[in-house]
């Protein structure tokens, strides 16, 4: 589904950061656009910065359920410093909090949490109901490997070698006697 991203440019609080950029809203079903000014309030300006595709994947339904069960269901907008004429590039819009967390780990991207409109909540909930399958919990059992056996320092048996290079000096002395 195409989703428009609204970014707000407001004056910074300190002299080192002249402008503060935040994602404030998403526009479901928006048409293609690049940095159209929507509203101006004094020095603060809101732009429809870009329209990107919101994709849902059947393998991530558990993440979508987690996001929908939050107090305020949200979408996550991933932004990068702009490489062209614009200050920021919109990389991605996702409904998965797990995917958003992956982008925050690198520190190179800005991830903004934006409240999800009611229509998108219903759309994602329908998708989850259609494709979600609960995974049965399977307790992992320990291997029955015997640990009381003595390894004679032979190393990897698949590698042919003339001498036993892994044997300790005490083990070598025992063999010589």
Structure description:
With 177 residues, this protein is of the alpha+beta class. The chain is 23% helix and 32% strand. It contains four helices and seven strands, in the order ββββαββαβαα. The protein has helices spanning 61-68, 97-106, 118-131, 169-176, and strands at residues 2-11, 19-28, 36-41, 44-53, 74-81, 88-94, 110-115. The strands form two sheets. The protein has a four-stranded antiparallel β-sheet, with no helix packed on it. A three-stranded antiparallel β-sheet has the order 6-5-7, with helices on one face. Helix 1 packs antiparallel against helix 3. The radius of gyration is 28 Å and the shape is elongated.
Secondary structural class? alpha+beta
How many β-strands, per DSSP? 7
Residue share in helix: 10-25%
The rounded Rg comes to: 28 Å
How would you characterize the largest beta sheet?
Answer: 4 strands, antiparallel
Strand content: 25-35%
Count helical runs: 4
Mean pLDDT: 86
Spans of at least 5 consecutive residues whose pLDDT stays below 50 are none
Question: In which order are the strands of the major sheet placed?
Answer: 2-1-4-3
Write down the overall geometry.
elongated
Order of helices and strands: EEEEHEEHEHH
Amino- and carboxy-terminal Cα gap: 78 Å
Key terms:
single chain; 177 residues; alpha+beta; 4-stranded antiparallel β-sheet; 3-stranded antiparallel β-sheet; 4 helices; 7 strands; 23% helix; elongated
Topology:
Blueprint: E1 2-11, E2 19-28, E3 36-41, E4 44-53, H1 61-68, E5 74-81, E6 88-94, H2 97-106, E7 110-115, H3 118-131, H4 169-176
Antiparallel strand pairs: 1-2, 1-4, 3-4, 5-6, 5-7
Helix pairs in contact: 1-3
């Amino acid at each position: 589904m195409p989703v428009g991203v609204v970014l707000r440019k407001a004056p910074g609080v300190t002299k080192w950061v002249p402008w503060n950029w935040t994602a404030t809203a998403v526009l479901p079903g928006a048409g293609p656009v690049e940095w159209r000014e929507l509203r101006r309030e004094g020095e603060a300006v809101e732009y429809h910065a870009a329209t990107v595709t919101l994709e849902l994947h059947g393998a991530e339904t558990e993440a979508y359920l987690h996001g929908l069960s939050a107090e305020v269901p949200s979408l996550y907008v991933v932004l990068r410093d702009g490489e062209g004429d614009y200050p920021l590039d919109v990389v991605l819009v996702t409904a998965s909090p797990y995917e958003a967390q992956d982008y925050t780990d690198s520190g190179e991207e800005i991830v903004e949490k934006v409240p999800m409109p009611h229509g998108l909540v219903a759309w994602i909930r329908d998708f989850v109901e259609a494709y979600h399958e609960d995974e049965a919990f399977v307790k992992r059992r320990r291997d029955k490997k015997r640990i009381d056996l003595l390894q004679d320092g032979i190393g990897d048996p698949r590698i042919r070698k003339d001498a036993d290079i892994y044997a300790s000096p005490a083990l070598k002395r025992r063999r010589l006697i």
